[in-house]
Amino acid sequence: MKKLSLIVLLSFFFACGDSSQKKSKEGSKEAAIQEGIADGKFNDFKHSFVEALWKIEPIWASYVGYHKYDSLLPLPNEDSRKEKMAFVNGMKEELNAYDLNELNKLNQIDYKMIRDALERFQFGIEKFKRFEWDPSQYNLGGAFYQTLNYRKESLEWRLTQLDKKLENVPAYYSEAKKQLKSPTKVHTELAIQQLNGSKSVFEKKLIDSLSHSSLGVLFKEKFIEKSENAVKAINDFISFLENQILPKVANDSSSFRIGKQLFEEKFSHDIHSAYSAEDIFKAAVEAKVELHDNMYRLSEMLWEKYYGDTEKPGNRLKEIQMVIDAVSRTHVARDSFIYAIRQQIPQLEAFVKEHDLLTLDPDKPLVVRETPGYMRGIAGASISAPGPYDKDAETYYNVTPLDNYSEEAAESYLREYNHYVLQILNIHEAIPGHYTQLIYSNKSPSIIKSVFGNGAMIEGWGVYAEKMMLENNYGGSEKEMGLMYYKWNLRTVCNAILDYGVHVNNFSEKEAMQLLRKEAFQEQAEAEGKWRRARLSQVQLSSYFTGYYEIMQLRDTMRVLKGDAFSLKEFHETFLSFGSAPVKYISEIMQDDALKVLE
Ligand code: ZN
Ligand code: ZN
Hints:
Blueprint: H1 2-9, H2 17-26, H3 29-56, H4 58-63, H5 78-96, H6 105-128, H7 130-133, H8 141-148, H9 155-167, H10 169-179, H11 185-212, H12 217-245, H13 259-271, H14 277-307, H15 316-327, H16 337-354, E1 367-370, E2 381-384, E3 396-399, H17 407-416, H18 419-429, H19 434-443, H20 447-452, H21 455-471, H22 479-503, H23 509-519, H24 524-536, H25 540-562, H26 568-577, H27 583-598
Parallel strand pairs: 1-3
Antiparallel strand pairs: 2-3
Helix pairs in contact: 3-5, 5-6, 6-13, 8-11, 10-12, 11-12, 14-15, 14-22, 14-25, 16-18, 18-21, 21-22, 21-25, 22-24, 22-25, 23-24, 25-27
One zinc ion (ZN) binds near residues 329, 331 and 411.
């Protein structure tokens, strides 16, 4: 921090920056050649690293679109874990052969991300040990579905892979039983529910596909027998969970809490933040207070418009809730939900251009479509981007139409995604949020960043984009937009509070509900879903706020470092140019570069 304040004093030297930068470029031709060789070698290493990873993680591989090992099904046991640790140790050694300083900036980040991934694998095996307490990780429905759905290969090819994979299913479940030393009640219940759901992949989808294939009668007979055995193994595992595990954990109401030490460790492995989980929790609690103040201020100004001279409830949170309820009634009709989103995209593009916030790639318009049937489960909107092995595919903005909703459910959904929130959602998902970030990250393609992309950076950018648009007066002077934005941001903030609260501070269900319903103004169903998710996951709910918080901090720092030369557009474009890497690593490079210019 000391160094930083000195720089502030020296910032009037900034005009010299340009010429000194040129000089250093000219003098480093030789270094550039050296750099090229080291980077070339490292690029080869990255590819062999990922290849080796897919061989021991074939299921993960098929999820990212790599199907070479689709016939493999490793057993979940000590042997596989030993094999993975051998991979971790071997790769750590290979990585050590590279000198971080000889690599270019993008590869320096990749280097760190590989190192982090290896440490994370080790943490998972040696300390976190999900395999001992989370039965829901023993679910093969998705693994089989990913192969079956890989339409670049013939149906016959896919079924032949699956035929081999099916052979190991009974052994897989018999090993799974042995691993479960201390299952939690909530994860056991989830496992039972999900396993019952994924049985249909084996009972129906595989068999249907088989009947459409041109494979021989003998193959088909054996395949049917193997899939029947797989279903038997799954049923056996389900009844093991129901009859042997559930009675033992009937009174378990807290083993899902991972506690402070593990939470901090997992936080550092998953997020790679410059802050501790405790710092982030405290920052979130502060942010909540500030949001409530802002929301109350706007509610006071909006009260008369919606409630005339009706007496106020005499309680800040209740008053905010009442104004939110009134404002939420302004929403699109259920049958024009997608139409409204489609119309908004060009408006957002125009706003970003007009305010010079960042450059948008004009060649790649975003395609808004109805969510395809096989992806529908939960309502809502999402960006679906091509994976690392499917680069030419289109990027879509999936929006689920409200066709199957009852009148009441549709109304409740439309109020949640009302006229104002719908715009914030589009900013987050599309422009200048996730979709824009994705386009920038594709400009410097990296297999490492596509495989280990940092969730906190990606979500943090989405949340930051909302804030930044509002700062630039998106929505004009409409107080309703401000109020709804704060409500939306409060959700992110309360996700972080809930996550740490549940795992470290022993939040009870009642406390969680108080937070979500009364302080974050959420509907009962949404709050219940969140309480469940907070018990089933760890750290993930904190990632949105952490990424956002760190981007805001970085922007403040860059403003100080660059002084009058700070440009918001340049900040955005530089930040995004490093791809989906931890904000901490991007921040280190950006600050370093800014300091070099000043030297
Ligand atoms: Zn309505
Ligand atoms: Zn998001």
